[in-house]
Amino acid sequence: MGPVQVLVVGFEHPAFSGEILAEFSRLDQAGIVRLVDLLLVSRAEDGTVETLPVPADAGLGGLAAVVLGQPGGADEAGGDEAGADAAGDAVWSLADAVPPGSVAAVALIEHLWAGPLTAAIQKAGGAPLEETWLSSEDLGVLEALIDERGVPGTAGIP
Question: What burial letters (b/e) apply to 18-48, b meaning 16+ CB within 10 Å?
Fold first, then answer.
């Protein structure tokens, strides 16, 4: 299995039409990413988290709930109630990722394109140390810099 990303997307007023699942299907057919599982959660103003039924449910949500911990449980992501593991290191929490009073989709996405790259890195003795995504603000700065500087190798990239 290739690298799997946990993507949490918040919705103020969810309006699921099937368009997101159709896009995941297209990306899977193109060999780019595969939607491993999708879990919908709601976090009440008091902080409690509950799962919601997935529209057009095809048995989705069960894998993510097990891997990430049942929402609202004291032992999400293998930590204690304070959000730390046995060594005292901070751990990621689904409940912390979803703001109170909102709904979120939690997708487990396998990056099919990255499998060969990950294997090459491991073969060379390397291991990922950190993974993050640029914020929309930082992405805007990057795009402006690319446009301004005419960075080689980026011409024609949409």
Answer: eeebeebeebeeeeebbbbbbbbbbbeeeee
